[in-house]
């Protein structure tokens, strides 16, 4: 599942690159491209790619209701032995999606995800925030993971169904990791280089995102969720 919110500059290349890499690796795949309330040319481009590749499905969210909501909407249509989601901005190479999937299949873990060991595009402020965020989550919930938000995240189908993910905002990634750890699922991180965004701009609003994060982290730590 890939959510796209006003990503007209990236959506075609992302879908084509991912399809090409999965095809070369002889992976039986389906890509669910979520138009997450876009008001630019994103929906039309998804439809155009879909016409040429029947393995691409388009799912629409009329009005953007958050990062998590878009992904959860797409996941409702997901089928297969393995299910996962990633980002639609092109900052993770298609070959790394394949690497995560193949690592999951070949290892004895339940969830496989990326760890961004090098981040080409992030400044000091964002890097500092990210490190603090990961340290806080890891300390409060006794985890040994270095990149909580790193995507793609790919898992066994039964694992996804059992997690019952609910977060409509940016807390979807921590929710998945926290619930997986509580249920005893094994998680493996694959190191990658997080590429610089080539087109478009990020839709992350840091003040709002930080507030959502703190609110949810308190609820989960106190057992309210």
Describe this structure in words.
- The protein is an alpha/beta fold and 225 residues long.
- The chain has one domain (2-221): Alpha-Beta Complex (Spore Coat Polysaccharide Biosynthesis Protein SpsA, Chain A), CATH 3.90.550.10.
- 44% of the residues lie in helices and 18% in strands.
- The chain contains 8 helices and 7 strands.
- A 4-stranded mixed beta sheet has the order 4-6-5-7. Strands 1-2-3 form a 3-stranded parallel beta sheet, sandwiched between helices.
- Helix 1 links the parallel strand 1 (2-4) and strand 2 (31-36).
* Integer tally of domains: 1
Classify the beta-strand content into a percent band. Answer: 15-25%
How confident is the prediction overall: mean pLDDT? 90
The global form is: globular
Q: What's the helix-strand series?
A: EHEHEHEHEHEHHEH
- By CATH, the topology is Spore Coat Polysaccharide Biosynthesis Protein SpsA, Chain A
Topology:
Layout: E1 2-4, H1 11-24, E2 31-36, H2 42-52, E3 56-61, H3 67-75, E4 82-85, H4 94-106, E5 111-119, H5 124-140, E6 153-156, H6 157-163, H7 172-182, E7 187-194, H8 206-221
Helix pairs in contact: 1-2, 1-4
């Amino acid at each position: 599942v890939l959510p796209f919110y006003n990503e007209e500059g990236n959506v075609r290349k992302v879908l084509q690159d991912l399809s090409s890499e999965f095809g070369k690796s002889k992976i039986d795949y389906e890509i669910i491209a979520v138009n997450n309330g876009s008001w630019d040319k994103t929906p039309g481009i998804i439809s155009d790619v879909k016409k040429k590749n029947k393995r691409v499905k388009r799912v629409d969210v009329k009005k953007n209701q958050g990062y998590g909501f878009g992904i959860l909407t797409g996941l409702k249509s997901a089928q297969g032995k393995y299910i996962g989601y990633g980002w639609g901005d092109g900052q993770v190479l298609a070959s790394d999606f394949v690497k995560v999937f193949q690592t999951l299949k070949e290892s004895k873990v339940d969830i496989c995800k990326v760890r961004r060991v090098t981040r080409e595009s992030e400044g000091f402020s964002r890097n500092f925030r990210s490190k603090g965020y990961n340290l806080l989550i890891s300390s409060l919930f006794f985890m040994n993971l270095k990149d909580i938000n790193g995507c793609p995240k790919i898992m066994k189908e039964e694992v996804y169904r059992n997690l019952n993910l609910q977060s409509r905002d940016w807390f979807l990634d921590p929710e998945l990791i926290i619930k997986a750890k509580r249920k005893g699922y094994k998680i493996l991180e694959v190191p990658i280089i997080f590429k610089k965004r080539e087109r478009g701009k990020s839709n992350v609003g840091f003040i709002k995102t930080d507030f959502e994060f703190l609110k949810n982290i308190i609820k989960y730590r106190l057992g309210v969720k």
